[in-house]
Amino acid sequence: MTKTNAGRFFEDYSIGEVITHAVPRTIKMGERALYHALYPARHALYSSDQFAQGCGLPFSPLDDLVTFHTVFGKTVPDVSLNAVANLGYAEGRWITPLWPGDTITATSEVIGVKENSNGKSGVVWVRTTGRNQHGETLISYVRWVMVRKRGDGPAPVPVIPDLASAVTVDDLVIPKGLDFTRYDFTLAGEPHRLGDYAIGEIIDHVDGVTIEEAEHMLATRLWQNTAKVHFDATNRADGKRLIYGGHVISLARALSFNGLANAQMIVALNGGAHANPCFAGDTVRAWSEVLDKAETPAPGVGAIRLRLVATKGRAGPLRGEDGKYHPDVLLDLDYWALMPV
Amino acid sequence: MTKTNAGRFFEDYSIGEVITHAVPRTIKMGERALYHALYPARHALYSSDQFAQGCGLPFSPLDDLVTFHTVFGKTVPDVSLNAVANLGYAEGRWITPLWPGDTITATSEVIGVKENSNGKSGVVWVRTTGRNQHGETLISYVRWVMVRKRGDGPAPVPVIPDLASAVTVDDLVIPKGLDFTRYDFTLAGEPHRLGDYAIGEIIDHVDGVTIEEAEHMLATRLWQNTAKVHFDATNRADGKRLIYGGHVISLARALSFNGLANAQMIVALNGGAHANPCFAGDTVRAWSEVLDKAETPAPGVGAIRLRLVATKGRAGPLRGEDGKYHPDVLLDLDYWALMPV
Amino acid sequence: MTKTNAGRFFEDYSIGEVITHAVPRTIKMGERALYHALYPARHALYSSDQFAQGCGLPFSPLDDLVTFHTVFGKTVPDVSLNAVANLGYAEGRWITPLWPGDTITATSEVIGVKENSNGKSGVVWVRTTGRNQHGETLISYVRWVMVRKRGDGPAPVPVIPDLASAVTVDDLVIPKGLDFTRYDFTLAGEPHRLGDYAIGEIIDHVDGVTIEEAEHMLATRLWQNTAKVHFDATNRADGKRLIYGGHVISLARALSFNGLANAQMIVALNGGAHANPCFAGDTVRAWSEVLDKAETPAPGVGAIRLRLVATKGRAGPLRGEDGKYHPDVLLDLDYWALMPV
């Protein structure tokens, strides 16, 4: 009897199954210090207890992507171990902030399966939910991956979930108590409020960061993400370690401070594509496009829908003439953040 | 008068002397976050306060090897500065868990000396004890090293301590309150209990990690281990920095989660050899052999004795025909861990 | 309207203006753990709560340079973004220790401007003050930088501040309660007290550390210092990332433990020069010269004025025959520290 986890294959997913992911994780301020050492994160709500209190919160929560990465990491042994590709995200919502001392657990429900025509792999859709120690939902999102088949068995009845193209404004959950009416723009770093942004506006975040192997491995390990390709230089024929896509998300989000310092809290993930692989030595830059704007019921709090694009070269076209992502594009993310009106 | 510490030479050790090591160290959750970023550590008892509470502990302790490394680091200026080789460990026991906020101090008693026949060096045995701020023993272990002689003086009367080949089951200290009767195997990550392991069974931990210079230096510094060879690329003729052997221990132990997720708490170190040096760029893998199993008086708690082997290549023979370790073997460690029966 | 911060040019500084720097920052024990992983920091007062209590403090403060780096980092977007060179420091004083949980904010008052004769740049002097959440001053120091002009406008009336060549002993602020009368030299790591050091004495700190890209970037990011040159390998023609000068300060200060283990608290920065740039791969060493000694009103507490020099080669002359720093000299820092008498 083998004791090690060989991972699930396409045949091992059945519609409606709820997978409980292993290894709950208590997150405290040490993880925050590391997050701020790994990414140039400067959004003031996540940097200062006093700033957060000025926004109606008890103190500063962990960066929202810490919740995402930790939950994602827990799903890897059950969802991604035999995955060929991470295909997409949808209907992601942050429901409760992550406070220092919280313990995260995660489950995933299988909501879609579709065998590929080659008979050798298939697509699996899961809705993953992260919860704190009180059983409250921290985050919920749909992810779909392409997974290898173990054998030559018959294809299951295909089930393709009907996913929203974006989270609607009414479905955004505003953290309890959030109030931007006394927001301090000077301490936040930029004067721009929601009204200063126009739909369609492009913001070049200017700065670039050249990634080192040690950094992306420290980050990926911190989320207890164990996918071989990120750590083992002998795993690929080219001797390269593939950088966890979430590392690029956090890096691009942090870079977006320069121009979007007031896009404080991430509340929804509408979609996202890891357009091209990222490797150590790449210099990552980012730009954002304002996709939508909205008001919310919370005092002084607006919502801004942003496309966040990370590239490894200078700014250029997002897609080539063939409609495919330009080879320099690493990430194309669509999310909602909260900003003072 | 020189102000810097030149380290002790073989002549400076006399049987019975107790050396108080410098720089006490308070350890909190920041060190835990770093430990989990540096190693793929996932044992649930050390990841989640709630999981630890389900096992009868007040909350999650620091990983047991944090205690070992911190104590070891304190001994370096007094024991290893002029050491030629780290020869072995014995009779290591973890007596009290390390809780966040504890302050570690360490002392070492010289229990053996034996000059080498070349007259230029000798072997020194010390029994090192780490204590918390309450004076409770955290850990105790014997280590022996080969140390240079300063001069040509006469050899001391040799004293070779009589060391146990392994800590007996009766000598294992079970942390107060530990109870595995309601152990959650799903959250722990694997279903295997003590009864599922057979003596002689080999478990390949599958995953590999390629080590970077920045990582092993961050780790080694965190333990305030100041040995030059780990940090100064000009120290060796080949321009390489030797990786602290403890870094390989922690890496291999963390990799062993895959197949030994329920070998939760390390309670004894029976012996260990750093078989070959490890350098940045090496891809480390690990396998374990079950050496022994035992029951303990604590409810639901068994003990498993494991050989943990780290290699830098694919799995192969532990030793060559000459009886020496295969050049790819980095570590051969013998320890006891606690596991649900 | 561009949303990103293009930084200030020489014309944007007017005498008397007080700039409020953005992004307040709460610092806890996670930052301390990272500091101790990034630098071989071992001064006992900053390592152990119990040791600090033995010196009359409530518990262990953050390393003094954490205050300096965090405040410095906040000034970068407003002071250094278009700076050509960091020219000097003066009148630096640590007024209140930084305790875990404190939130740092920073302001800078423009106290000097002088256009260069080329008409293309000028020198700006600012007095920067870091404060905690209670409004108490943590640190205050003067820094001057050379900044590019935006245009061809007329030169302002030059104002050159009259700066002290060193902070006087009477101006040193001793942390409340500090008492070295029961100082434990054994646990601190060295027996040398103030009386054991002679003015003019040189202490070679022996150890060297070879710097990695990942390390200096983690450190610099931790202080939320966003200067491009530290992170973006495409920024300079030679493809090198310039290491933040403060990284060298912290590294040299940590290395100085070996010979100056009892120079515990930094209380003043008299001056400093980043003599030559530092890059990854450099092996940094340090030596100190005792410049002055003094008594203080606090029980058992003396002050020692030290020149701390960091080099990237073996020890050699500080300056060449032309009076310029030797190319191997990285740092020449002049500071006061507190030491048991």
Describe this structure in words.
Three copies of one chain form a homotrimer. The first copy, chain A, has helices at residues 29-38, 49-54, 64-80, 185-188, 213-222, 245-255, 257-260; strands spanning 18-20, 25-26, 83-94, 103-115, 121-131, 137-148, 202-204, 209-210, 265-274, 283-295, 301-311, 329-340. The longest helix of chain A has 17 residues, at 64-80. Chain A is α+β, with helices and mostly antiparallel strands and 341 residues long. In chain A, helix 1 (29-38) packs antiparallel against helix 5. In chain A, strands 1, 2, 3, 4, 5, 6, 7, 8, 9, 10, 11 and 12 form a twelve-stranded antiparallel β-sheet that branches.
Q: Major sheet of chain A, described briefly?
A: 12 strands, antiparallel
* Number of E-state strands of chain A: 12
Spatial gap, N to C terminus of chain A: 60 Å
If you average the pLDDT of chain A, what whole number results? Answer: 96
Which class best fits the helix and strand makeup of chain A? alpha+beta
Beta-strand content bin of chain A = 25-35%
| Total number of helices of chain A | 7
Most extensive chain-chain interface: A-B, 40 and 47 residues
Low-confidence stretches of chain A: none
The portion of residues assigned to helices of chain A is 10-25%
Oligomer: homotrimer
User: Can you tell me the overall shape of chain A?
Assistant: globular
Please give the radius of gyration of chain A in angstroms: 20 Å
Q: How do the helices and strands follow one another from N- to C-terminus of chain A?
A: EEHHHEEEEHEEHHHEEEE
